[in-house]
Amino acid sequence: MNYDQFIKDLCIRTAKILINLPSEPNGKDVNPLQLNSKLIFPNYEQDDKKPRISEQEARFVFCQAFEQMNHGLYYSVETPTEYNYSFKMSKKKDVEDIDDSISDLKVYLKNPKKKEGQSAQSDMSIFTLEDSGFKQNINVEFKAHNAELSHIAKDFLKLLAESQHGLFFHLVENINSGTLESIINKYNTSIKNTFKQIKTFNNDNRKNKIKCNNFIYYFAICILNRKPSLLFAKIKKENPFKEREDNFGAFAKSEYKDLNSNKESIHNWSILYF
Question: With contact defined as beta carbons under 8 Å apart, do 195 and 245 qualify?
Fold first, then answer.
């Protein structure tokens, strides 16, 4: 199966539904005949005029889009991971390098005789059904807003350490000239930290090495307002991650203007507008 086209089509379908989801505050303006989903964005508890947008909506709509598509695949949610993880954050009060704040994120072999870390879950996993049974092929992690570096870093560690392809789907309500630059800088920092942790793991487990460059990783950023769009990129095994360099070019202010002029690609991101 061509996963590249399937994953991109699935992200596009998900983005279309998310961008057109009604919210509780604008219910009086909704035409039910124009909706592709029964899901809505609810009010914030503290502000009944502002919709609450979260990764939960992205997850439910993604599953809905998956169910709607014609394919022979299956999925699970909150899938237990192959490895154990420690997501404890550094408690140093004088962190000089932002990388140090996520340096305590770790991955471990599951070993009943040596309990290190704990089992985690992938938000969603996609399976094929083969003669031998179900085979897990792709793990998906969801995130919303310009999340803290630590929240992005732990998801990247899971995606790259597990023995499957990966997709990171990121829902953003709106953007300004600094939002994308901030988000993509966090991606780059998280990837570098993940490779540090994988290198440590592989040095300690030479017979059970993590081989993340054997897999393909997809990244999707769905922007809801101001400029509804989907940014999509992939890192493939033929052109794998760079361990010590930035893997994504951050959007400078001038390139943010390019986004607003309907440019179809910036750096290694393709862009689809809605």
Answer: no
Q: How far apart are CA 79 and CA 67, in angstroms?
A: 18
Residues 157-195 as b or e (16 or more Cβ within 10 Å = b): bbbbbbebbbbbbbbbbebeeebbbebbbbbbbbbbbbb
Task: Please state, in angstroms and rounded to a whole number, the distance separating the CA atoms of residues 128 and 73.
Answer: 5
CA dihedral 197, 213, 179, 104 (to 10 degrees): -10
Q: How many domains does the chain have?
A: 1
d(CA 126, CA 104): 29
Q: Which amino acid is at 203?
A: N
Q: Give the DSSP letter string of 10-55.
A: HHHHHHHHHHT--BGGGGGG--GGG-S-S--BPBPSS-TTSB---H
User: Could you tell me whether strands 165-172 and 217-223 are parallel, antiparallel, or unpaired per DSSP bridges?
Assistant: parallel
Per residue in 89-116, pLDDT (tens digit) is 765 544 445 567 788 899 999 988 888 9
User: Tens of pLDDT along 133-178?
Assistant: 999 999 999 999 999 999 999 999 999 999 999 999 999 999 887 8
Q: Are 143 and 155 in contact (CB under 8 A)?
A: yes
* Residue 138 structural domain: 3-26+35-273
- Select from 21, 46, 16 the least CA-distant residue to 35: 21
Q: Model-level pTM?
A: 0.93
Q: What's the one-letter identity of residue 199?
A: K
